[in-house]
Request: fold
Amino acid sequence: MISIPVRIYVYYKAIQWKMDKPKGIGKRLNNYRKSINSNGYIIVFSCFQSALNGILNAGSIIPKIITISPRWAVQLILFDSSETRNAFLITIGHELTHKDGDFSMLSKEGPDRIFISWVNEVHADFGAAEKMVNGCKQKLLDSINYKSEINESIINSSKLNKNEKNRKLGSHPSWSQRKKYVERGTFDDELIKEIAKTTGCYNTELIKKVREYYKSPIILQ
Reply:
């Protein structure tokens, strides 16, 4: 079931951009959901997920559910293409990888917390490719390019997101940084150490624990 607010959001965007009024929004989005192997997790398009800033986003915090921002509904309905579907599929894979279990950030602060967060995010990028596109590096890079182009355009033009422009070391690495890591082709011990250096984390005991937690490398093709 696709909520009425999400359907209205898509319809509103079509009117705003002077596009043909879309038909069968709910049915089409449901078909997208059903076509993806989400390992039993429910995919929910939700206006509570980044609706105000209008970016492409998803979340895995709620048990048994993956929440999807309404902007994804807009892209799937108004800009349906192989590029859109690939980026959406990898987004779901990213959240599924988080569902498998991240290294805990509980009680961590400063560079230690940023380091763990970055490693978790980059691991989820690699895991998404492994789960959804047979480890295809190019498809993962294509998805990053797709999402970064849309989200950065929104951030650059939105007063709501003006603080995002100046954020240097946040909970997520930048799109360019994520792309750089993916281009290496392998999530492994060396990449984790590189992320520690970039985030200014010099807690050797923590770095060791994170390396042990993610001891299985992911090699893209």
Q: What stands out?
A: The longest helix spans residues 110-132.
